[in-house]
Design a protein that fits this description.
Among the domains are: 55-109 and 166-220, no CATH class; 247-366, OmpA-like domain (60s Ribosomal Protein L30, Chain: A). It has 5 helices and 22 strands. With 366 residues, it is an alpha+beta fold.
Length: 366
């Protein structure tokens, strides 16, 4: 009775745990399920910014003159007496030789500098799950840690020019020019016999304004630049469970080959990835860890770097085939996880070294 009660408590606790974590309620025996959390999706948008304002440029068209002729009286008419002729005196008569005008002087536009700060990548956050190593429990879910990670937004300063004052003109007055001419006027009239003495005239030339000074306007267009920003398109964080073959949770060897001391994939290796790993990723939302290893020959640090480059090559190829990089993890282990005794300074055959030069993959929680 006590055992039945205890089993009933465990059964209720198990059902509650499954429901709380969203696990399938009727799983198939022999099947494994991994937790998949949808990632944030981003998109790039282009924004056009004004970096230099439009302004007006002015230039002065000077005034033009024309010459006109005028007939002026230089000697008045008079009468002459036979016995007593008239006497004259000369006086200066002033006249306007050149009219005044207003010249225009251009005051150019002045500018300032400023900048604006734009968010080019938004602040993001989300849950990350980590399976603790050396888990003592048979159920790996007992060793899953959830960490809420927050990444700050990224900003960029964009400088631009501002219009402080627009172009204008100042009026500069130019004074008129005066002159004079000599005129004889009667000082003493003639007496006795009167003789008519006709008036005398002369022609003078003077300059008058034909077309007044003006300004010519030219509009300088604004300048723009385009800034590319990354914005959040679709918020992730939705948790689902994907059914996978249980053997995919353990490291599976990919028969991927590389050129000597190179991380470049051969065409045969790409076909292996297309036939083996690509269908798993396209038919589900699971995440995959790519693990690359080397044999013990060569420098340890070089082997570690080379294995990481080779794992990155597989990830980059999968991304080129349409798989999101957020679902892929590349890890290079160098010669730290040998499958046999062929460590440093141990003589082994080429075939034994070959077993250590491998690339593996396994399905992981994301």
């Amino acid at each position: 009775m006590k055992q039945k009660l205890l089993l009933g408590v465990f059964a209720i606790f198990g059902i509650t745990l499954v429901q709380a974590q969203g696990l399938p309620t009727n799983p198939e025996p022999g099947k494994c399920y991994v937790k998949c959390i949808t990632k944030d999706e981003f998109k790039e948008v282009e924004e056009t910014l004004q970096t230099y304002p439009a302004y007006t440029k002015l230039s002065v068209v000077p005034a033009t003159y024309k010459t006109v002729e005028e007939t002026v009286l230089v000697k008045e008419a008079t009468k002459k007496f036979v016995y007593v002729p008239a006497t004259y005196e000369t006086v200066d008569v002033a006249y306007l030789k050149k009219e005044s005008r207003n010249d225009l002087r251009v005051v150019p536009a002045s500018f300032g500098r400023d900048s604006r700060t734009f968010e080019i990548y938004p602040k993001t956050s989300g849950w990350e799950y980590k399976v603790l190593e050396d888990c003592p429990s048979v159920n790996k879910e007992d060793c899953v840690a959830a960490c809420f990670v927050e990444y700050p937004e990224q900003k960029m300063d964009v400088p631009y020019t501002t219009l402080a004052t627009d172009a204008s003109t100042n009026s500069i007055p130019v004074p008129e020019q005066n002159a004079s001419y000599k005129k004889r006027v009667i000082k003493t009239p003639a007496r006795m016999d009167e003789i008519e003495i006709p008036a005398e005239y002369a022609t003078i030339k003077r300059q008058v304004i034909d077309v007044p000074a003006s300004t010519r306007t030219e509009t300088v267009p604004a300048k723009y630049t385009t800034v590319t920003r990354t914005v959040l398109d679709k918020k992730g964080g939705i948790t689902t469970w994907e059914e996978v073959e249980c053997e995919l949770l353990n490291p599976n060897v990919l028969p991927v080959f590389y050129e000597l001391a190179s991380a470049r994939l051969t065409s045969a290796s790409k076909k292996v990835i297309d036939d083996t790993l690509l269908p798993i990723l396209k038919d589900s939302n699971v995440s995959v860890e790519i693990m690359s290893h080397t044999d013990s020959r060569g420098n340890d640090n070089y082997n570690m770097s080379l294995s990481q480059q080779r794992a990155n090559s597989v990830v980059n190829y999968l991304v080129s085939r349409g798989i999101s990089r957020s679902r892929l993890r590349a890890r290079g282990f160098g010669e730290s996880r040998l499958t046999n005794r062929c460590a440093n300074d141990v003589e082994c055959s080429e075939s034994m070294h070959q077993r250590n030069r491998r690339t593996e993959f396994r399905v992981i929680n994301n």
